[in-house]
CN hydrolase domain-containing protein
Amino acid sequence: MRLLACQTTIPATRNRLDQRDHLDALAGRLRTAASQQRPQLIVLPELSSQEYGEQAFEAMDELDDDLQGPVTAHYCALAQELRCPIAFGVARRSRRADGSLQRHISQVVVDAEGQLAGAYDKLHCAQFGASAEAAHFSPGERLVTLDIAGWRVGFMICYDLRFGELAARYRQLGVDLMVHPVAFTRDFSFTSWHSFVITRAMENQCYWLSLNRAGNGWGHSLLCPPLVTPEASPEVLGEEEALVSWQLERDTLERARKRLPLAGDRRQDIDRLATGPLPSPTVTTASQ
């Protein structure tokens, strides 16, 4: 699979006009990048349709989308034009069963025909460090996997990375590539971000694309292979904007899974094992 990973600069967006200007400018850069090497999947960062921060969150009435609004329409048209699926970030508006409004941090995928293919809502809203999401967003309730160019692709967003049971569930679903858009700035959680990505990729034996926005205090996106060795290391970007074409190889997946046979060696009874101190010694009586 050929990925176009877009660590892109996202300007201040406080209203729909700001957002439209940003989306139009980004579309131009995507057209240029896609014309050089045609991708099979274009990926954008978390909330790539708007600024990440309290001022933008307070202007959500101007910036959100219900999958029938201007942001989704923009990417449907662009995906159809480029003949390539696009995974983009947006604040998704929906209604609860009681009719009240809620919003999610979502990664939406439109296919090469410009049709909606899926929408993953972030399961864990971050409320620590530089993140203050809980006052503005609701957690999602479902996982999303899609078959794209013959690959099983799973989705999670930023803070979701920290929960190993979520990644393990995606492994059970047969994911080959995890698309992990993020908004990591330089708070305390930044230091451990790459370590988590490498661990998750290796323990679940899949490619892992962790894609940040560009700019001072952001950046450093990485693509991690399913097995890190002296010959195969994660590819890491800097802070500046970068639209990078990465080729993923199925042979790399198969070799990693064969070389380190976790699937066959993983015990299925861990949750049933006894706990406690050392077992009592067995006392034997000598025969008389």
Notes: Residues 16-36 form the longest helix (21 residues). The longest strand covers residues 86-95. Residues 2-264 form a domain with the Nitrilase/N-carbamoyl-D-aminoacid amidohydrolase fold (CATH 3.60.110.10).
